UniProtKB/TrEMBL annotation:
Pfam entry (one): Metallophos
First-tier enzyme category under EC: hydrolase
Catalytic activity: a phosphate monoester + H2O = an alcohol + phosphate
Intracellular or extracellular location(s): Secreted
Record family assignment: Belongs to the metallophosphoesterase superfamily. Purple acid phosphatase family.
Record-listed Fe cation 1 binding positions: D50, D83, Y86, H252
Keyword Glycoprotein: yes
CC cofactor: Fe cation
One Gene Ontology cellular component: extracellular region
Sorted UniProt keywords: Glycoprotein, Hydrolase, Iron, Metal-binding, Secreted, Signal, Zinc
Entry protein name: Purple acid phosphatase
Residue span(s) of domain Calcineurin-like phosphoesterase: 44-253
Cofactor binding remark: Binds 2 iron ions per subunit.
Amino acid sequence: MAKFSKNSMVLCFLVAIVFVISSASASTRLKKFDHPTKGDGTLNFLVIGDWGRRGTYNQSHVARQMERVGEKLDIDFVLSTGDNFYDNGLTGIHDSNFVESFTNIYTAKSLQKQWYSVLGNHDYRGDVEAQLSPYLRKIDSRWVCLRSFVVNAEIAEIFMVDTTPFEEKYFTTPKDHIYDWRGVLPRQAYMANVLKELEKALSESTAKWKIVLGHHAIRSAGHHGDTQILVDRFLPILRKYDVDFYMNGHDHCLEHISDTESPLQFLVSGAGSKAWRGDTKGINRDDVHFFHDGQGFMSVELTPTEAEIKYYDVFGSVRHRWNRSKLLLHSAM
Ligand SMILES: *[C@@H]1O[C@H](CO)[C@@H](O)[C@H](O)[C@H]1NC(C)=O
Ligand SMILES: *[C@@H]1O[C@H](CO)[C@@H](O)[C@H](O)[C@H]1NC(C)=O
Ligand SMILES: [Zn+2]
């Protein structure tokens, strides 16, 4: 009898451990959105960043060109690289800036698709939880914004990551800005968790194309330049799991930069409204293939073996294009 109760205690203990382990790993799994594609094995989408200014600074002109390209490519969705609402995010879920900078600007039929968005540093200056609120979907059903999440679009998986908390300067020298860090503190634990969740999701991915998207650049020849902490903490993970593209905004320009040590490509699309900053750094670097200081956006066309990236300016002209064929890449190696 004594032996039985001892065994059952051990059993209870083991069950408790298994429960703790499984609930801990469940809490570190990124929310995943399954986005069914057209069924012909292709996926087309647009990428825009740093845009919400009630149509000003050519935001409306960029929107018109997105309409045209979106229709031509019959896009599946739009990705936003953050800084969605200027200057200070949304003040709350009823802030008219949401409708005036999003719903009333991207009105075209071709843009009535899901918009998957991350937060940028400006978004953290408002009521950060407003943009994350499912209530906004009642106002405009296109809006999907979470801190970090995964879009599973069959041939591609897109890992959306919250990079703003990685920039220490927003915490140590916020200047006259007030950041809403609810849900982020303590910062070190938050960052460790983002990296752990990303690595887990990447390690489990079987998608043909792996894309990671955040607000801040890993590599940029624009005003803000490279983000050292992302070079240190994200880049090794992206290389390890054969990520094809890292996409971001933050610098108000369009860029295409290659990694020097892997096939990874850095694609910057942060030119949704205010641009022409005029203070570029290192555009003559060997790894920088394209830099456009003005407004514009990017399109991505994928098949299971081919990728085509195009960058458009405010007039809708293609300023840069780039292809990758996975078949060629592999047979060459
Ligand atoms: C809008 O785009 C036009 C054409 O490139 C440019 O001349 C103008 O300066 C832009 N306006 C702003 C505010 O950036
Ligand atoms: C790039 O891809 C497009 C569309 O698949 C194709 O028409 C074009 O020939 C490709 N260009 C190169 C250089 O492979
Ligand atoms: Zn930014």
